[in-house]
């Protein structure tokens, strides 16, 4: 049965069987695992996951595709098809224990999906996601590199992200405009800042990178007082002319703590 891909829902189906297997092998799923799949599409990855794990929740926003999935995956008794928007999905009502997440995710809401996953990070062990390779580069970037910015800090605060491999555009139908990359995002377990402090940390980071060519002193002029910044430079032995892209996440944490 042919289903016309809907561009507005980011439907680029992964047809290359070798890549499907490569993704599943990289996830190293165990037979006891429970997996949430974001955007099950035509269910090709879903079937491969279902063969490896105890239970799969296959989330799909498109009701036409949900009909297709119900028909084509009816033999897979451990697959539960959920017709829902991932951005409205409440992990707490579905899962008692931590789950693994897999998704060849729609590009148009990549950032929103990452933010949503972090909101429920206590319920997630690891997320394996396929995103545009530029987006993956920003997520995994290290200080001093051109891709390093507020997204890198945001993700690396909550998780340990690792790029697994790049996938050729023509592995998909229709081929996306940018080549995708597969990422492994392992949620951190240790306690982080309190919510109010996190808010401040991310405010400082966003503000710092809003004008990344400026020195930190200039870009934070309206967010952090001069004496506080002075104290930060002195206490942590940091060059007062440093640019935001040269600050590590722990530098930003130290600044927010002050
Ligand atoms: N997993 C399939 C594959 O690898 O071929 C489909 C991947 S396709 C890039 C993304 C899928 O996410 C589409 O099936 C699309 O309908 C679905 N989708 C788009 N927005 C969504 C949302 N907000 N919540 C859940 N699924 C969504």
What key attributes describe this structure?
2 domains, Rossmann fold, 7-stranded mixed beta sheet, Helicase, Ruva Protein, domain 3, 11 helices, binds S-adenosylmethionine
Can you summarize this structure?
The protein has about 260 residues and is of the alpha/beta class.
- CATH third-level topology of the largest domain: Rossmann fold
Provide the CATH superfamily of the largest domain: Vaccinia Virus protein VP39
**Ligands present:** S-adenosylmethionine
Cross-sheet strand order for the largest sheet: 4-3-2-5-6-9-7
Poorly predicted tracts of residues: none
Shape-level CATH architecture of the largest domain = 3-Layer(aba) Sandwich
Topology as H/E string?
A: EHEHEHEHEHEHHEEEHHHH
Shape, per Cα inertia axes:
elongated
Instruction: Profile the largest sheet.
Output: 7 strands, mixed
Question: Could you name the CATH class of the largest domain?
Answer: Alpha Beta
Rg value:
20 Å
